[in-house]
Each structure stands twice: as structure tokens, then as C-alpha cells.
Amino acid sequence: MGEFLNIFIKSAFIENMVLAYFLGMCSFLAVSKTLSTATGLGLAVIFVLGITMPINWVINELVLIPAELEFLRFILFIAVIASTVQLVEMLVEKFSPGLYAALGIFLPLITVNCAILGGSLFMVSREYNLTESIAFGLGGGFGWFLAIIALAAIRERIRYSNVPPAMRGLGMAFLITGLMGIAFLSLTGIDPAVFAGWSETVAE
Amino acid sequence: MAESTEIRTGVVAEPKKPESEKEPIFGKKEKILITDPLLDNNPITIQVLGVCSALAVTSLVYPSLVMAVAVVFVTAFSSLFTSLMRNIIPKPVRLIVQLVIIATLVTLVNEALKVLAFPVYKQLSVYIGLIITNCIVMGRLEAFAMANKPWRSFLDGVGNGLGYGLILVAVGVVRELFGKGSLFAGSPIAMNIIGPSNDTTQYWINTAADSGVGTWFGWYANNNLMVLPAAAMFVIAVFIWIQRSYNTKLVDAS
């Protein structure tokens, strides 16, 4: 349990997908104009990331590595992600048509959200086990959710400020994200496990 | 107004022409497909597509250049193949078909880089794989290649890849020059531009106190902020600022 929480907290705050690795920027910048759509997209990302990560782990460990087919990794991972997103799209359309209309093109674009595929690729390169990859998926998604909500809230406020015309909208979004990224840098190197006494040694 | 929305979305409807009329292979319309995405409809600063990799790989010029070439290759050929198959792809599964095309091309690039330039491959790590999810590729397939003929789609792919590469290399130049004082580090044409020379490295502008220009440039120090990924955000924001100041049509109304 300690290990699970450790990776969850680490991937949500210390190694935040958006603010530390800058993954999933396209939809992060484009859908963060209002808080409500940002919340919907954030929840969808948590869901997709949480589901695809363990599936991709199973495919990678039980199919690709024993059969020595690692070069097929990209194609299989993206196929899993695309079908999961299609599933989410159908569910959202059925249960929440308002959210479906609000998300528009960005729901299918979760497929090409770098955070999802990037998460799976990081999982492979960091050699996580199944529990760890579930924690990484949920934590990474939660971190992405928090970041997009924060940016959307700031952008809603900044509409009342006197920004130079050429910087309105996109320009300010880039600047704010950069500043948030620098703020999150101060968290690097913290090991939650050591703080909470789950582990005695400092992990690298 | 209609013209400006056309520029924004980049969707250009295919003109209906009688079959007999001959189309030039590289006419005015084809030229626009290449030049438009370079500035007025740039994938990064206007369409906001493909930002992720722009931030992660641009701390040095050489990896950004390699990345740009890889992306041009993938956008151009995925547009070509998608456009060739556009009439036989069933609508509901088109995303998956497109992704398989892109993933195949990216796998090719990945394997080729592993053989040809292993150090850069190591440096780019997961970001080569992430070309698959680079929104430009998918965005152009959806917006253009699914509705246009192969040759035009190919050119559109090349143009958008180049527009992306242009920003990537520009950000790379700013970040490497001010962050490390060098250009093209790691490549055969590595250049050391500014910094204090010592026995192992010679800089063009020597800022060491005992040199000629050192008395004038002795205060100069590398800006470590530029090495951080966040700096790419600021550099792109400045590019957007400059571009939108010149072209006020692009200013965000909301």
C-alpha cells in the first residue's frame, strides 16, 4: 500500500505530467478556457490513463517481451488507447450529452493526448510492475486533472485583466504554464516515502 | 471574415473543377500549401498543435533539427497514404486507421534513428514515439488529407511539418545560445559561440577576463533558466507576441 501511495503522490505532484514533462500540452492549452469543460476533460483523462496503463502493461509483459516483438509496441499501445477512447466517447455521449457537446473534437483527441501514450512509454522505460503502473496511471491522470483545473481557473480570472492585445488568450496561457512549471520545479527531489516513513532509504 | 476563418482552421475546400481542365503540378495553390503553415497558419503558434515535443526536445539545436526532420517525414507520408485511402476508410474507424498509418511510419523513423544516430536517439528517448500523438499529424489528416487529393495532401503535410520544424529550431537556437553559449552541440558542426575559453574549448567571443573582448563582455554569464523546459514556454510566448503584433488579424478576440 505504501508503495502504491508513494508512486501515486510522486506522479501526481512531483513528476507532474504537464508541468514537469510537458506532456498533453495541446488539449491542455486549448480546452482550458472555461473551468467546466476543463473539469470534464480532466476526468476523462484520469479514466483513460487509469484503464490503458494496466492493459498496456499486460500486453507489454505477457505478449511483446516473451515474443520479442518490442518494435510493435507503438502500434499495439496506440490501438489499445484508441479503442478505450472510443469506449469513453460512447459512454459520455449516452450519459452526458451536454459534456459531449462541450468537449467536441477534444474527446477523440484524447487518443492523441501525449500524456496517455507518454505514460505508457514511461511505464516501460521505468520498468514498473502491475501495481505500480496502476498507481502511475491514476496518479498521472490526477496530476493532469489538477493542472488543467488550475490553468482554467487562472485563465478565467485573467479575462478581467488588461493584457496586451497580442498576448491575449494563447500567449498568456503559454506564460502561465511556464510559471506554473517553474513553481512545480521546487518539488523535484522530494521522496514522499521517506517523509511518511514507508521506506527507510532514499530512492534515487 | 470568411477569409480569416479559413486561415484559422486551415481547412481549404477542394475546388470543384471540370475533369477536362488540367491542374498544374506545382501552381500557386500548391505553393500556398507549403508557405502558409510557415507563418500565417503555423501549427504551433496559431493552430496550437504539437506543443508537447516542442518543449521537451528544444534545449539543444541538434536534437530539435533531427526531430523536425522526423516530423516532416511523418506528416508528409501519413498525409499521402491517408489521402490515397480516403475513399475506402470507413468513417467510424478512421481514427484507428490513421493511427496505424502514423504508428507504422514512426516505428520506421525510430528504427532508422537507432541505427543512424544512436546518441541523438538516446537523447530524444520517448519523444520519438510521441510523434504518434503529435497533434499536428493527426490534425492535418483529419482536416486536410481526408478531403483532398494525394499530391496536395503530401504538400500540406510537408508545409505543416516545416512550419513546426521552423519554430522548433528557432526555439532551440534561442535556448542553446543563451543557455549554453554554443550551437549545434553534439553534431559534426558544433560551434562554441560565447563563454570563457580554456584549454579544452575555444569560444568565438571569449569572455575570460584576460582576453581582448573579455574586458567588455566579462559580465556575461549563461542563463540557466533557458535550460529548463519551462523556458521553451516563455520563448514560444514571445514568438506569439511578436507574430500577433505584426498580424493583428490573429489576435484572440475573447
From TrEMBL, chain A:
Composed of six subunits; NqrA, NqrB, NqrC, NqrD, NqrE and NqrF. It is a multi-pass membrane protein. It is an enzyme of class 7 (translocase). It holds the Pfam family Rnf-Nqr. The keyword Cell membrane applies. This is Na(+)-translocating NADH-quinone reductase subunit E. The keyword Amino-acid biosynthesis does not apply. It comes from Neolewinella xylanilytica. It catalyses: a ubiquinone + n Na(+)(in) + NADH + H(+) = a ubiquinol + n Na(+)(out) + NAD(+). PANTHER family: INTEGRAL MEMBRANE PROTEIN OF SOXR-REDUCING COMPLEX, NA(+)-TRANSLOCATING NADH-QUINONE REDUCTASE SUBUNIT E. It comes from the Bacteria. NQR complex catalyzes the reduction of ubiquinone-1 to ubiquinol by two successive reactions, coupled with the transport of Na(+) ions from the cytoplasm to the periplasm. NqrA to NqrE are probably involved in the second step, the conversion of ubisemiquinone to ubiquinol. Keywords: Cell inner membrane, Cell membrane, Ion transport, Membrane, NAD, Sodium, Sodium transport, Translocase, Transmembrane, Transmembrane helix, Transport, Ubiquinone. GO terms for cellular component: endomembrane system; Gram-negative-bacterium-type cell wall; plasma membrane. It is found in: Cell membrane; Endomembrane system. GO terms for molecular function: oxidoreductase activity, acting on NAD(P)H, quinone or similar compound as acceptor. Its EC number is 7.2.1.1. GO terms for biological process: respiratory electron transport chain; sodium ion transport. The gene is nqrE. Belongs to the NqrDE/RnfAE family. The chain crosses the membrane at residues 12-31, 38-59, 71-92, 99-122, 134-154, 166-190.
TrEMBL record, chain B:
Its main location: membrane. It catalyses: a ubiquinone + n Na(+)(in) + NADH + H(+) = a ubiquinol + n Na(+)(out) + NAD(+). Its EC number is 7.2.1.1. Keywords: Cell inner membrane, Cell membrane, Ion transport, Membrane, NAD, Sodium, Sodium transport, Translocase, Transmembrane, Transmembrane helix, Transport, Ubiquinone. GO terms for biological process: sodium ion transport. This is Na(+)-translocating NADH-quinone reductase subunit D. Residues 1-21 are annotated as: Disordered. It is found in: Cell membrane; Endomembrane system. The chain crosses the membrane at residues 65-84, 96-118, 124-141, 153-174, 225-242. InterPro entries: NqrD (IPR011292), NqrDE/RnfAE (IPR003667). Belongs to the NqrDE/RnfAE family. GO terms for cellular component: endomembrane system; plasma membrane.
